[in-house]
């Protein structure tokens, strides 16, 4: 059971874990032991609340396929248990990230005094640069 929050948890049958051989360097052990983890999580089949499902499917994340399947590959650690925990934690963080609502951006415009100050500074800067020029006698 993976606990996302107090109200939301995922059952073991919703998360498909398969163990594969890790890529890259690692000596003799890497060719014999399946320590990397492939985690697959189908968003549409899950028991997540509709709010989380919608937000996950709308996310622009390379780990989420068009069919709504989250695929996470964990191979950072040498042991299967640590890689499994890492993959589950990354899934948990992804779901939590989908649950956070972003603040609505309201467009603002500068005040009249701020506009006036900016134009005054520009004029002053232009005069300073003009004084640096050659002097006509």
Automatic annotation (TrEMBL):
Record's keyword annotation contains Hydrolase: yes
Molecular function, one GO term: peptidyl-tRNA hydrolase activity
InterPro entries given in the database record: Pep_chain_release_fac_I, Pep_chain_release_fac_I_sf
EC number of the protein: 3.1.1.29
Bias kind Basic residues: ranges: 102-120
Keywords: Hydrolase
Spans annotated as Disordered: 102-137
Enzyme class: hydrolase
Pfam families from the UniProt entry: RF-1 (PF00472)
Keyword Hydrolase: yes
Prokaryotic-type class I peptide chain release factors domain mapped to chain residues: 21-37
NCBIfam families: PRK09256.1
Family: Belongs to the prokaryotic/mitochondrial release factor family.
Name of the featured protein: Alternative ribosome rescue aminoacyl-tRNA hydrolase ArfB
Organism, scientific name: Gilvimarinus algae
Gene this protein is translated from: arfB
